[in-house]
Amino acid sequence: MERDPADAIAFMLKQEREARKWSLADLAQRSGVSKAMISKIERREASPTATVLGRLSGAFGVPLSVLIASAEKVTERLSLSERQSIWTDPETGYLRRAISPAGAPAELIEVQLPAGARITYPASAFAFQQQQIWILDGCLDFSEGGVEHELKAGDCLLLGPPSDCTFSNRGPSQARYLVVLSRG
């Protein structure tokens, strides 16, 4: 059973914004996302793209998975596959599954990037965490600042200092990869 994380995204977005005593305009200025879009997301009138969520998480200084995963603050040791949070980007079909139990010190995220899809995140989305990408199936073209990486199944890349990043799948089939996040 796949859970729709739209409620948790809306809840966490508003909670993070209000905890900082930021207005919609404050968050819009910090993230580069319009006030109207932020308001629609908070009211569940719009589903954000991966790029928009990356900008918002960067503005808050929290991992993207925090905005996507359940709003529950419970620490768990077991994450059953049928209860894992799954989110799909409405624009690209990018699918993201949060694998790790809630509260784990490192986060495991499985991503499925359709053929022809491209996702760009600002450097601010990576400023507060270390990230590794391990390719499980297919190929992934990854741009980290000005550095290009052509990754294939089995390859693992540790990201360097925060910079704008683009995940591109120019191959004929879906790319599937694991993202490992650790705060640091």
Automatic annotation (TrEMBL):
A single GO molecular function term of this UniProt record: DNA binding
Annotated ranges, domain HTH cro/C1-type: 13-67
CDD domains on file: cupin_XRE_C, HTH_XRE
Keywords for this protein: DNA-binding
Family matches, as InterPro entries: Cro/C1-type_HTH, Lambda_DNA-bd_dom_sf, RmlC-like_jellyroll, RmlC_Cupin_sf, TransReg_Diox_bact_type
UniProt entry tagged with the keyword DNA-binding: yes
One Pfam family in the UniProt entry: HTH_3
SUPFAM superfamilies given in the database record: lambda repressor-like DNA-binding domains, RmlC-like cupins
GO cellular component entries: cytosol
Entry keyword annotation includes DNA-binding: yes
Domain of life: Bacteria
PANTHER family: BLR1115 PROTEIN, HTH-TYPE TRANSCRIPTIONAL REGULATOR
Name assigned to this protein: Transcriptional regulator with XRE-family HTH domain
Gene source species: Rhizobium wenxiniae
